[in-house]
Design a protein that fits this description.
With 219 residues, the chain is mainly α. It has seven helices and no strands.
């Protein structure tokens, strides 16, 4: 993108945000701050899940399969080269089979899997909270704006142009609801996508743990 076009685009965003703040007041300011925080958080979560892609977890599954076939050296190399921290736990489970009490190994692997998955579920509640509260905050701003508009109308009762003043106050009040909904909808979608990714990762890790435990019990 041309630098001048980039600057113009950024300036239009800043001016647009300034107009929203001027018309919507404190409520819109809170919503905009929440959206900026939420976008940064969602971006970090998407990057985190990108590293733990199905293909990356499939490599761990392949390592477990190789270990089953007796190719421990190649399996160990795959696990060591993996960027996923759960690979260390998988290697621990495979190396401890036959030498560690099966029940203790079961509990330890489940504990490690839960710890690993907790890092991916962390902060998803904050994204969920944003899309829950954004419409409510927008509605609150609308109610406060309507109160202010009708109060102004009562003060200036009988003055000319009171209808246009009321109309202006109403559309400015409704602006906060529109902003709230505009923030809530994309955050609801992002949260749903992240939840789906978490469920898929949980299923994959649970399957890996089950294969290790099955292998350790039948070896």
């Amino acid at each position: 993108m041309d630098p001048s076009t980039e600057v113009g685009f950024l300036m239009s965003i800043i001016m647009g945000a300034g107009t929203l703040l001027k018309l919507g007041g404190v409520v819109v300011g809170i919503l905009l701050l929440a959206s900026i925080f939420g976008l940064a958080l969602a971006g970090q979560k998407f990057l985190q899940f990108r590293r733990a892609s199905p293909a990356a977890v499939s490599e761990l599954d392949r390592a477990v399969g190789l270990w089953h076939k007796g190719e421990q050296k190649e399996a160990r190399e795959l696990l060591i080269e993996s960027e996923l921290t759960v690979a260390t736990d998988i290697r621990f489970g495979l190396e401890k089979h036959g030498t560690m009490n099966p029940d203790l190994l079961h509990d330890e692997l489940l504990r490690r899997a839960s710890t690993y998955l907790r890092g991916y579920s962390q902060n998803l509640r904050l994204i969920e909270l944003i899309y829950y509260l954004a419409p409510v905050m927008g509605l609150l701003g609308t109610v406060l704006g309507m109160i202010d508009a009708f109060r102004g109308l009562a003060v200036s009762a009988g003055a000319s142009g009171e209808s246009s003043a009321l109309a202006s106050g109403i559309w400015e009040a409704l602006l906060t609801t529109a902003v709230g909904l505009s923030i809530a909808i994309p955050f609801a979608v992002m949260h749903a996508v992240l939840e789906a990714k978490l469920e898929m990762l949980t299923d994959q890790v649970s399957d890996l743990v089950t294969r290790i435990l099955t292998f350790s019990e039948t070896s």
